[in-house]
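F.,

This is the one I mentioned.
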């Protein structure tokens, strides 16, 4: 089932149930003391990686159509294989689920016996940080996007990876997903309030309290909020499918050429853009594709949902020659001296995500002597 469709399906919600602050406008930048958070730092995605973590989708409640699940698994393998040309990749999958994965994966991709349900490593995987010169996991507890999806396995992945690596798990005191917040690695965060100040994740916490915990989790000092959209997709509008930091104070944002005032995502995207502009950031707009291989209102066609690995950017192409080229050229400008690799990942768009959603980097820790 598609992630944008899921929360509108009462049948799906019933099936899952059987398993057991005042608004401040988006162009406000709130600041916090840097001193208390300076000991913990999440490096920018474009900093050197040790490796990439990914997850193998297997759950038939989440993906009931076996034919589509096969396509989805092949897409995950394609992404893993592409990244493995530039850095090591570890794919998490229960031992009993690894047979098909082995037939599709390059020998450069390593399999770990960590059970999974779905593929969204950005959300349920580990958020790595550096603390006092050592690697740690700055832990944001995944709860199935506010208990909208089964996560008996996925909710434990970050802790299991921490145990496997022998690194500390540092609690943020938050429930949520790393895909719901963007960081530039130089002290600035941006997020949609809808993904965080939400009773389905952080009930009882004000926006200021959520912000303080996010700043601490990333080792950041200031944050840009925009309202986002609640209840229209399972993520409550993750920021990483709309706008991405490509460096300190620099943003790439994906917007439609024509805004539909009746589309809540279009209007929320415009508000986010205005918030970023008001923050005096260097913002470049790239268009959404007009011609797509998948004709569905729920299809996520995001060029912004790319992944920056060592020496390359792994990005989507959607079959629109003009906008595919515009996006690739923009990525080449923002990430000079990296190879731009574009893939057909339509299967991810059909379930509401993209390449960034399916990956999570482990930074290389440089030991100072």
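My design for it:
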């Amino acid at each position: 089932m598609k992630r944008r469709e899921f929360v509108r399906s009462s049948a799906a919600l019933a099936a899952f149930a059987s398993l057991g602050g005042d608004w401040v406008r988006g162009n406000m930048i709130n600041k916090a003391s840097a001193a208390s958070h300076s000991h913990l730092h999440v490096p920018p995605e474009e900093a050197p990686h040790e490796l990439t973590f990914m997850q193998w989708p297997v759950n038939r409640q989440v993906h009931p159509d076996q034919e589509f699940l096969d396509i989805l698994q092949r897409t995950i393998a394609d992404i893993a294989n592409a990244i493995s040309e530039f850095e090591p990749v570890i794919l998490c999958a229960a031992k009993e689920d690894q047979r098909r994965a082995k037939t599709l994966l390059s020998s450069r991709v390593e399999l770990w016996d960590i059970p999974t349900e779905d593929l969204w490593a950005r959300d349920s995987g580990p958020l790595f940080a550096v603390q006092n010169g050592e690697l740690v996991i700055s832990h944001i507890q995944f709860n199935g996007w506010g208990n909208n999806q089964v996560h008996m396995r996925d909710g434990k992945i970050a802790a299991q990876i921490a145990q496997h690596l022998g690194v500390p798990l540092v609690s943020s005191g938050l429930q949520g997903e790393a895909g719901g917040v963007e960081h530039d690695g130089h002290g600035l965060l941006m997020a949609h309030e809808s993904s965080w100040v939400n009773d389905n994740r952080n009930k009882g916490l004000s926006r200021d309290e959520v912000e303080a915990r996010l700043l601490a989790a990333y080792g950041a000092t200031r944050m840009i909020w925009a309202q986002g959209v609640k209840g229209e997709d399972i993520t409550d509008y993750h920021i990483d499918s709309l706008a991405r930091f490509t460096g300190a104070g620099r943003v790439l944002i994906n917007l439609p050429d024509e805004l539909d005032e009746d589309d809540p995502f279009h209007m929320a995207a415009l508000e986010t853009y205005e918030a970023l502009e008001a923050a005096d950031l260097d913002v470049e707009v790239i268009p959404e594709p007009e011609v797509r291989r998948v004709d569905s209102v729920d299809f996520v066609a995001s060029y912004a949902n790319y992944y920056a690995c060592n020496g390359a950017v792994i990005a989507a192409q959607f079959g629109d020659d003009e906008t595919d080229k515009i996006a690739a050229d923009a990525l080449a400008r923002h990430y000079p001296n990296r190879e731009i690799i574009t893939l057909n990942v339509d299967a991810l768009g059909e379930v509401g995500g993209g390449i960034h959603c399916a990956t999570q980097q482990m930074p290389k820790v440089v030991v100072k002597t």
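The chain is about 30% helix and 25% strand.

Talk soon.
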